User: Fold this.
Amino acid sequence: MRRRAAALILLAVVVLAAAGLCSRPEPAPEPAPAPAPSEVPETIPQSRPVVLEVPRIGLRAEFEPGDCRVKDGAINPATMRLACAFTAPDRPYELPGTHASDVVVTAGHTGAGVPGVFDSLYDARSNAHTVTLGDALYMRTEASGERWLKYVATDLHDPTKDALAEDPAVWGTGATPGRLLTISCIQPLLSDSVRNAVVGWQFEGVVDDIR
Assistant:
């Protein structure tokens, strides 16, 4: 009888211990990792261009410190060896920066027998653009320091000079944020220039190095 009572007591202790084990609370789940902070796009204020490069065609062009000269109603850079950017109170053209809200206009001369800063943009002998769609243009500005604004070629044009100002394929029909134009003359060797070489570029981002 005593053995039976002892056995019952022992069984009760085992059952209670097992119940205690079964009712032990599960460990709290580990907190979910916090989402990685998204990268904030870098902002470079609009300012005067200092230099541009198109590595694939070997073009490097430095800029005049002020606006392009206008002569007889047309953009006419003051020197053969420097490019220029054009802004005017009565035009929507803007200076380059990460958040330019309309087109950036740059221009440079080409020469026949005399070197011009934008000679590399067009091959007058073969009557063809040297830039191909997807080529990269890199620009440093007064505000960008050692970093580069990167643009990618999106469209090529060779309008006559009298048609350029009204060509919607070049200028668009409304604001064109992030767009940049390089404008030069198509200079035949033995005759006057009557057409422009125009490349449209679209801003892509800010980079540390030219690739």
